[in-house]
Amino acid sequence: MPVHRRSPWSLPDSEVTPPALFRARRRFLKAGAGSLALSAGLASGLGGWVGAARAAVERPGKLAPLEVTGTTHRVDEALTDYEAVTTYNNFYEFGAGKEDPAENAHTLKPRPWTLSVDGLVARPRTFDVADLLATQPLEERIYRLRCVEAWSMVIPWIGFPLAALLDRVEPLGSARYVRFESLIDDERMPPRNRAPISYPYVEGLRLDEARHDLTLLAVGLYGEVLPNQSGAPIRLVVPWKYGFKSIKSVVRISLVEDRPLNTWQALQPSEYGFYANVNPEVDHPRWSQARERRIGEFFRRETLMFNGYGEAVADLYRDLDLTKWY
Ligand SMILES: Nc1nc2c(c(=O)[nH]1)N[C@H]1C(S)=C(S)[C@@H](COP(=O)(O)O)O[C@H]1N2
Ligand SMILES: [Mo]
Fold first, then answer.
1. How far is the CA of 51 from the centre of ligand 1 (A)?
2. Comparing C-alpha atoms, which of 160, 309, 325, 317 is closest to residue 237?
3. Could you give phi then psi for residue 85, rounded to 5 degrees?
4. Which residues bind Mo-molybdopterin (predicted)?
5. Which of 106, 286, 318, 322 is deepest in the core (most CB within 10 A)?
């Protein structure tokens, strides 16, 4: 039988839940879902933030939970299991397989970690992420995540608006875009595990997108610090855009004048653009974007314009041709 070799940018769009995920879910069910009681309550749309959150979401054997002021955004849809969120990942620095990051990212060493913010700012600064966590009020935000490969999840992130960080460095009037860069490190991200794309992983946003209230710097999920495979210790989450915009393990944020060339656009510009707004009406050249597979569900769902965040973000694009600027 001929072996079909995919090019690195040929992201698979599987119609069925991968078998490994079923295995992971069974393991999880056996372990008992007690520790997820709080999040399950949020998922069913009942009640608000429960004061004793820290105790309720404790996950023995994992890193300490974070201090969170409250849940500021949510969607009225079931949360994706912690197990699925943290074993079905895209993080090419640790391999191209969905389970590779969970398997390989133990080498990352996310503490200590510094994040430099530079470029067109009045006060360039290098933040120690531990200090950032101590000084920045953290919120829970339950967002949909829609990958360009047509699968999706609902994830309870912990984090703070990127705008809060930008305020601290005072962007200059000449800054028009924000460029993000992930760590690349041969010891902590051994080259043998990496998928063959170019590194560091780079992403970018227009400054108004970066300043939008929905744009989050996430430092945790399910009430705890991020596991390495999810982009520890700090990653971007832009919920109305395809998942590849949500860059992981960020070490540098630069305010710039020109539109940054993001990793996936550089790899295959006919398939991945700069904007990458979730749009059911603009198909990927190799598959439809009209529907998606919600991880953990059997039937496909309709994909929503701007991933369901249109009311909040459509105005950003009123002068933009979304077919041309995919
Ligand atoms: N540094 C880095 N960030 C990355 C990626 C990556 O390969 N490397 N993959 C992106 C893609 S394609 C998606 S869908 C999301 C997946 O985030 P998750 O694994 O937490 O669900 O991370 C994005 N951020
Ligand atoms: Mo993705």
1. 31
2. 160
3. -60, -30
4. 89, 92-93, 147, 182, 235, 246-248
5. 322
Residue 1 CB burial class (10 angstroms; 0-12, 13-18, ≥19): exposed
Q: Which CATH superfamily is domain 13-317 in?
A: Oxidoreductase, molybdopterin-binding domain (3.90.420.10)
Over residues 159-215, the pLDDT tens digits come to 999 999 999 999 999 999 999 999 999 999 999 999 999 999 999 999 999 999 999
The Å distance, Cα 120 to ligand 2 centre, comes to: 29
Pocket probe for ligand 1: among 14, 88, 91, 265, the residue whose CB has the most ligand atoms within 8 Å is 91
- Cα–Cα distances (Å) from 233 to 36, 79, 217, in that order, read 22, 22, 10
Amino acid at 82: Y
Ligand 1 cavity residues, CB under 6 Å: 89-93, 145, 147, 182, 201, 230-231, 243-244, 246-249
Distance 173 CA to ligand 2 centre (A): 32
Q: Which residues are annotated as a binding site for Mo-molybdopterin?
A: 89, 92-93, 147, 182, 235, 246-248
205: CA distance to ligand 1 center in Å?
16
Q: Give the DSSP letter string of 290-315.
A: SEEEETT-SS-EEPPGGGGTHHHHGG
Amino acid at the residue 125: R
Q: Taking the model in full, what pTM does it have? A: 0.85
Q: Whole-angstrom Cα distance, residue 218 to residue 225?
A: 9
User: Which atom from ligand 1 is nearest to the alpha carbon of 229?
Assistant: 19
